[in-house]
Design goal:
With 543 residues, this protein is an alpha/beta fold. The protein is 39% helix and 21% strand.
């Protein structure tokens, strides 16, 4: 258990936390949420001892071991992969190192023998003889081949290091597990494995993540950071979001009787509790929800962007046709080849590939920023396009204020008109005079969405649209595209985003395409798709 008492953190006049009092108990998984800059990662750093609070304290039940997902990908470069994982259990690793050092001494003494015997007893008690095999199994589960296990960490690429550091955090059944964005750089199969691992994990987990599907799959509670405070709520992210929105609507309904509101909230709890039985955290979450009272549900003070796409005209019957499109990168490696498909009216297509650069390459060709090596594509005459690139740096090179930045993309130059689109994306007051070249990643994406809304296009192309966004912006963007009745083509690592928006999945490979009219979850589970992927990739296929 972790008990936090009167914890505050200030940086000069800026207050991140003010008198926070919460308890995190064993057997539960807490998802920490809050707007960008609210202090989610900072809070985990306080609990791990990396940062000291300004005032207050926290305590951990004596004897419990805490494990933390490391963010420094170079910290263990001089160590072998397998040893790096075992180092996640610091005490066991120290015993192993001391024991091995004693046995290597040329002048082995009686005292050395006694110390070695003590260490062997501790080693056996901690099941140390299984350490290497357990670490190897976890690495294999996370997609790190056995041939890498004895290599130095410095020989691995960034994505491989992420998996090893995740194995390190999970290794040895820690009593407390702190995970900051654990799904970053993981493919869908590995995320699914992690979800199952945490669903079966019996100890305390505190996790920060922008992946709503992941939060829904693993969390029993939500820890919401708002107005420098932290409030704990029972249930996963969807329950928190839907219940807080319901409470907000009720608060604005002055004419509704109190008893009617309570009945509506109680019915919501009962309905969600019944649905919880289908989740991987079924038993614990269902029991927790059944104990809820309506007074536990409060309206969220969170602000959500107003994302609304309105095309100037509808699409005609001819949307987009590709025939045998192929592209190699600058090094001559094939990104995709023989890509052929025709889009129909209303198609919202999720594009998948094992190579993300292949998807970005395809989008750049379709939008006219690059050319294919071979093949052709034809847009319908009624189609107007709006593009959200993964790399938007070229749009923000000059130090313009946001009004002037957005005005350059608009036929209407009136400042009030421009401010309206910025306001929808939560840029208000003096914020509209920020310089565009000093914006954060999330602010740049919100500016690009303002630009997209202003174009009134009828075909949207989105390359990793949720990158850098907070949960509120992701949710608003997701809802806007669910409501979008026209055509879209996108790629996203956000499982919920893809599952709720796409009505068609197209996977592009160096040997052709897989094209299915089905949801993302159906695509992942379809046996025919798995066989096609195996044939096209020649190995076990990943997203």
């Amino acid at each position: 258990m972790i008990s936090v008492s009167n914890l505050s953190l200030r940086y000069g006049k800026r207050v991140l936390f003010d008198e926070v009092n919460v308890k995190f108990t064993q057997g539960n998984c807490y998802g920490v949420i809050g707007a960008n800059g609210a202090g989610k990662s900072t809070f985990l750093k306080i609990l791990s001892g990396e940062i000291d609070p300004t005032t207050g304290s926290f305590s951990i039940t004596p004897g419990e071991r805490m494990s933390v997902l490391k963010q420094n990908h170079f910290e263990f470069d001089e160590f072998p992969v397998l040893q790096t994982v075992i180092m996640g259990n610091q005490k066991l690793n120290e015993i192993m190192q001391e024991k091995d050092a004693i046995y290597l001494k040329p002048d082995f003494s009686d005292a050395d023998g006694m110390r070695a015997a003590e260490l062997e007893a501790q080693f056996a008690e901690m099941q140390g003889w299984n350490a290497e095999s357990d670490a190897a199994t976890m690495l294999a589960d996370l997609g790190i081949d056995e041939s890498y296990h004895n290599r130095l960490m410095s020989e691995l690429n960034g994505k491989e290091k992420v998996r090893v550091l995740l194995a390190q955090a999970l290794f040895g059944n820690p009593d407390i597990l702190l995970l900051d964005e654990p799904t970053n750089d993981l493919d869908v199969e590995t995320i699914s494995w992690l979800e199952n691992f945490l669903a079966d994990f019996q100890n305390l987990v505190i996790v920060v993540s922008h992946d709503r599907h992941f939060l829904d799959a693993v969390c029993t509670h939500i820890a919401d950071i708002d107005f420098n405070k932290m409030q704990l709520y029972t249930g996963n992210y969807s329950f928190w979001y839907q219940s807080s929105q319901l409470a907000l609507r009720q608060r604005s309904d002055q004419n509704k009787k109190v008893e009617d509101k309570r009945k509506e909230l109680q019915e919501f709890i009962e309905r969600f509790s019944a649905n919880a039985s289908k989740s991987k955290q079924a038993t614990s979450r269902k029991k927790l929800l059944e104990k809820l009272v309506v007074d536990d549900i409060k309206a969220s003070t969170r602000k959500y962007p107003g994302i609304i796409f309105r095309p100037d005209r509808d699409c005609g019957d001819q949307i987009l046709r590709l025939e045998n499109l192929s592209k190699k990168n600058s090094e001559g490696v094939t990104l995709f080849s023989n890509i052929s498909f025709t889009l129909d009216k209303g198609d919202k297509v999720a594009i998948l590939s094992r190579e993300p650069l292949a998807i970005s390459g395809l989008f750049e060709i379709l939008i006219g920023h690059d050319t294919a090596d071979s093949g052709e594509f034809v847009w319908g005459q009624t189609i107007t396009k709006s593009y959200l690139p993964n790399d938007n740096s070229s749009y923000f090179a000059d130090p313009e204020n946001l009004v002037d930045w957005l005005r350059q993309f608009s036929a209407e130059k009136d400042e009030t008109y421009i401010r309206g689109f910025l306001g929808k994306m939560l840029f208000s007051g003096e914020e509209v005079f920020k310089k565009s070249n000093v914006l954060s990643g999330g602010e740049k994406v919100r500016c690009m969405i303002s630009k997209m809304m202003m174009t009134n296009a009828n075909f949207l192309i989105l390359d990793e649209p949720t990158n850098h966004l907070d949960l509120e912006s992701i949710t608003a963007f997701n809802d806007a595209l669910v409501d979008w009745k026209h055509n879209a083509m996108f790629t996203s690592h956000d499982h919920e985003f893809t599952q709720t928006i796409a009505n068609r999945i197209i996977e592009i490979t160096p040997k052709g395409t897989i094209d299915k009219r089905m949801s993302y979850d159906e695509y992942l589970e379809n046996e025919n798709v798995k066989e096609q992927r195996m044939a096209l990739y020649g190995s076990v296929a990943k997203k």
